[in-house]
Design brief:
48% of the residues lie in helices and 14% in strands. With 288 residues, it is α/β, with parallel strands linked by helices. Helix 1 packs across helix 5 and helix 2 packs across helix 12.
Amino acid sequence: MTLTLTAPARTPSAAGRAEPTRPRVRFPAKVELFNGVRMTPTTYQEVVDVVLAAAEARQPAIAAFAANHILAMAAKDPAFRARINDFDLVAPDGQPVRWAMNYFHGARLADRVYGPNLTKRLCAAAAERGVSIYLFGSTPPVVAKLSENLLAMFPKLVIAGAESPPFRQLTPEEDAAVVKRVNDSGAGLLFIGIGAPKQEDFAHAHRHSIRAVQLCVGAAFDFHAGVKETAPAWMQKRGLEWLYRFVKEPRRLWKRYLVTNSQYATLFAKHAVLKAVGRFPATAARAE
């Protein structure tokens, strides 16, 4: 299923004839949560529809799937907040973010939009609709196993390219080569799994140069490659996935979860007070 698009405009050609231009896909409206951070109250199906429509229209776009640590980082860091607000779509990857959207904006979201689950849904839709994908992230063995597993799950899926970047900043020449490989591949979807906030910074920096829809899916690479386990469903439903992952990787994740979770709780409490006294920006902050 594709989205209903606005009627195409017509522009004069060099010969003076009116020729149709491709209509732009409209992404769902955002709402303001904490300290001016704008995020998208949305669902799995809406994201699949709009992302595939943009890919089929060859319309570049950037999408992130943000848990509470990303929201807390954006609320604290004005530069990072500006980049996040520039994304076409920022869906609630974490249950606490979904709860915030429901509490402050009455979004009535029944579920979050979890990056690993969305990755499978997008690959399934891409396989059926003939949209090829590109994988960028993790390590060479993980990317190879991820490619193998995705093709086993979705035999009609076309993986136009897959690579693991070095664990350092790319040189200008390397960066240009990545952009060329992705664009030359013809991929409609670029899945990025290099960790937050690095992947969000990468997508934003290439929002005008990479023609695919860029999707910051983080740990989806490791989960679908089978090198890491997802939290039990009961923990995910109760917003405790962070605890499961922290226990598994305390040295790597202690700051992300213990520090930013505390910041998130403080932000939620602060804005709950603002809401109680009628000072929370409930509708004025909606943005396309």
